């Protein structure tokens, strides 16, 4: 059970703050259930989720230590680029990874799509629309959670990752 003020990851919405837990007076809500009232940190809406919800993935935001460990592991991550000419297969592959709501999986996914983008650019092509869509979604979820864990603005997360990874490479070379 989450408390008012807790920061959680709520499915594809991303990081939300628990504003309150209350019964809703609505024809669409079960009047006997408590609902979390959630405010997405990176959106302009409110989300109402039953306290006993089992359909939408919900978990606490990772800790700063976990975020830094994940970032430090980036140079060691080996990813495979996923190719499919069937757009449905490509979409299902990306959705299956995103639906795990794991920062580690999101890092691997973004690295994989970035490698695919680099291959396309090297051939004089652009990254496909499906790939671009899922890269944007994965980065939004990942950078949003890392921003909260690292207590920094979301826009600064990619720079922080690059600096930390580059610094780690330099330390290993010395």
Q: What features would you describe in this structure?
A:
- The chain has 174 residues and is α+β, with helices and mostly antiparallel strands.
- The chain has two domains: 7-60; 64-173, CarD-like, C-terminal domain (Methane Monooxygenase Hydroxylase, Chain G, domain 1).
- The chain has helices spanning 64-73, 87-98, 103-122, 129-150, 157-173; strands at 7-10, 14-23, 34-40, 47-50, 58-60.
- The chain has a five-stranded antiparallel β-sheet with strand order 4-3-2-1-5.
- A hairpin with a 3-residue loop joins strand 1 and strand 2.
- Helix 1 (64-73) packs across helix 4, helix 2 (87-98) runs parallel beside helix 4 and helix 3 crosses helix 4 (129-150).
- The chain is globular and about 60 Å long.
- The relative contact order is 0.14.
Largest sheet: 5 strands, antiparallel
* Reported CATH architecture of the largest domain: Up-down Bundle
- Count of beta strands: 5
Give the fraction of residues assigned to helices.
40-55%
- The sequence of SSEs as H and E is EEEEEHHHHH
């Amino acid at each position: 059970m989450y408390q008012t003020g807790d920061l959680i990851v709520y499915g594809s919405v991303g990081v939300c703050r628990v504003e309150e837990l209350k019964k809703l007076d609505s024809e669409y809500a079960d009047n006997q259930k408590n609902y979390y009232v959630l405010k997405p940190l990176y959106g302009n809406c409110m989300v109402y989720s039953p306290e006993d919800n089992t359909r939408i993935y919900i978990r606490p935001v990772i800790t700063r230590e976990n975020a830094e460990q994940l970032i430090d592991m980036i140079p060691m991550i080996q990813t495979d680029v996923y190719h499919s000419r069937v757009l449905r297969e490509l979409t299902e592959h990306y959705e299956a990874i995103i639906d795990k709501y794991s920062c580690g999986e999101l890092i691997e996914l973004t690295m994989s799509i970035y490698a695919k983008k680099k291959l396309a650019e090297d051939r004089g092509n652009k990254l496909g629309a499906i790939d671009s869509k899922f890269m944007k979604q994965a980065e939004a979820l990942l950078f949003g959670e890392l921003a909260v864990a690292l207590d920094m603005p979301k826009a600064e997360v990619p720079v922080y990752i690059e600096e930390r990874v580059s610094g780690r490479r330099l330390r290993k070379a010395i």
